[in-house]
Amino acid sequence: MTDDFRTRLERELAALDAPPLGDLARHSLAEGRRLRAVRRRYQAGIAAAAGLVLIATVVGIPMLWGSSTASGPVVVPQPAASRSTPSVAPSVKPSPDEARVEATPEGLLAAFLEVLPDGKTSHYAGGGTAASTGGANPLSVRAYLDTGRGPGMLRLEVWTDDSPVEGGQATSPALGDGLPAMTSWTQDDGDVVTVSRTPDNCIQSLMVWVQRRDGIVVGLTVSSCLAFDGQHNPAGRLALTEKQAVKVADDDRLGLRLSRRLVKEGATRFPDLPTVG
Questions:
Q1: Pair 171, 164: CB distance under 8 Å
Q2: What phi and psi values does residue 42 have, to the nearest 5 degrees?
Q3: Dihedral, CA atoms, 239, 245, 247, 253, nearest 10 degrees?
Q4: CB-count exposure of residue 82 (10 Å: 0-12, 13-18, 19+)
Q5: Among 58, 121, 198, 249, which residue's CB has the most CB atoms within a 10 Å radius?
Q6: How many Å is the maximal CA-CA distance in the chain?
Q7: How many C-beta atoms surround the C-beta of residue 97 within 10 A?
Q8: For the purposes of burial, counting CB atoms within 10 Å of the CB of 107, is it exposed (0-12), middle (13-18) or buried (19 or more)?
Q9: Mind spelling out the 3-state secondary structure of the chain?
C-alpha cells in the first residue's frame, strides 16, 4: 500500500504546472533596487541637512537676523547694554539743599551745634538779625556745652564789618573795645584772628573773633560762668580751649548766609527759640 500511494503522488505532482519563478525573481530584484535608491536619497537628505546646520552655526544665516542684504560676514549680535548704566558717568550737580540762604537765629544755632566738639548741649537761645552791621544787634545764639566736666556757656555772634585790617591787627570797633590781652594774627587764607582773655570777668573769660576777607566777623565768647538766674551767674567751666574756639569761629558753615539744609533743620528743631539775653 505504501508503494501504491507514493506512485500515485508522483504522478499527480508531475501533472501540475511549474511555478513562475522567473517573474518572481525579476520582481524581487527590481524591488530591491528601488529600496536601495530610496535609502540613498534619504541618507543624502540627512547629510545635506546636517551640512546646513553646520554652516549656519559657523557662518550665520543673515535672514535669521532680519537682514537679507548683508554683504560681509554676519556677526552674531550681543545683548544690548542696560540703559540704566551709561558708559559715561553723568556730571554731579550740587544738592539744592546746600545752596546758601539768609541766616536765621534758629539756622545759626543748628550750624553752631554742628561744628562744636562732641558733648551734651542745652539752654539754647537766639536773636538779632542777619542785616547787622558794625556789631549792632548782631545775629547771635547761646548754648551750654558739657564735654564731661560740667556745663560751660558759649555765645556766638555774626555781623558784617568792613573795617580795614592794619598790620595784621583787626580794627573793628566791635572787637571787644577796652579788653586787655588782645592779640591778633593773620591766617594763611587772609582771615584775621583776634583773641582776648579776661580772667576776672567770668562772662568774657575767653573771646575769639575771626574777621574774614569778605567782611564777615564771627565772634565766640567762652564763659567760665553760666547765664544770670535772677540773682547771680552760677559757676561754670570753660567748655572750649583757645585752639578749639578759634577752630569753631573759623568754620565756614557759620555766617550770615547758611546752608538751606541748616536753616530748615533749625526751624524744625527750635520752633520756639527763646531770645538770648
A1: yes
A2: -65, -45
A3: 90
A4: exposed
A5: 249
A6: 171
A7: 12
A8: buried
A9: CHHHHHHHHHHHHHHCCCCCHHHHHHHHHHHHHHHHHHHHHHHHHHHHHHHHHHHHHHCCCHHHHCCCCCCCCCCCCCCCCCCCCCCCCCCCCCCHHHCEEECCHHHHHHHHHHHCCCCEEEEEEEECECCCECCCCEEEEEEEEECCCCEEEEEEEEEECCCCEECCEECCCCCCCCCCCEEEEECCCCCEEEEEECCCCCCCCEEEEEECCCCEEEEEEECCECCCCCCCCCECCCCCCHHHHHHHHCCCCCCCEEEHHHHHHHHHHCCCCCECC
The C-alpha cell 573759623 sits at: 250
Handedness of CA 220, 222, 227, 228 (dihedral sign): negative
Q: Do residues 128 and 105 lie in contact, with contact meaning Cβ atoms separated by under 8 Å?
A: yes
Residues facing residue 148 across a β-bridge: none
Cα–Cα dist 196/187, whole Å: 17
Rounded to an integer, what distance in angstroms lies between the CA atom of residue 164 and that of residue 167? 10
User: pLDDT tens across 136-191, in order?
Assistant: 889 999 999 999 999 999 999 999 987 655 444 544 545 555 566 689 999 998 99
Q: How far is CA 79 from CA 7, 61, 88, in A?
A: 93, 18, 19
Determine if the pTM surpasses 0.90. Answer: no
Query: Per-residue pLDDT tens for 13-29?
Result: 666 555 554 454 455 44
Backbone angles phi, psi at 171, to 5 degrees: -115, 10
